[in-house]
Design goal:
about 230 residues, about 10% strand
Length: about 230
Amino acid sequence: MEGIKELKSTYLTKPHFKGAKLGALFFLSLCVLLSVFYWHHPLGDLLLAKGDFVFKEGDIYRLMTSLFIHGDLGHLLFNSLMLMILSYFVIEYYGVLTFFFYSIGGGILTNVLTLNTMKPDIGLLGASGVVYFLWGFWLMLYLLIQRSVTLSRRLMKVAAVSLFLFVPSSFDPQVSYMAHSVGLGVGLVTGVGHFLLFKERLRSFETYKYTFEFEEEGADYDPFGYGEV
């Protein structure tokens, strides 16, 4: 008799937290309100991040406020859909506190690293760095946790979604593709760190199904010892 152990469910099989819609809507609302303030208020430029402001004048707060403001309505709408979707899923599976801590912290780090590659008088704004951070965070944890799906299938799913949703079809000189790349990289690293930190808890949600196979005896075997049959 041989037993076969098969992984049936993982931490990602079902959601674990409530309030995902409210949390995602709140984050998006901050983007809308601060963007409108940036567009129409004389003090709106105080929210923008530039190397000169951040590193020379010490306006560190701009690293955070610039995450929520956008250049125009089109820029805001472009980021809003994926921001809502990714925020919703991260909150639903990892909690609202984890979402806000990681998204804002990851966004700030993304801005720091990106501004260091830009001219000090060029502004950086928008939530696209946070969007790519959240995608990197989610996909890395998916790859590490969802072991009920083969690794090749997990990689194919991640590649397909990434190509469809996150690879641009055209080049726009107004877009900071460096921020996208940095955000994705920071998200991937954060996902690995989160997994290693909470590995025992994440693995505790795994359930297994056991099946048993019985070896068939040869036709000339007599289980009762009466000789050949």
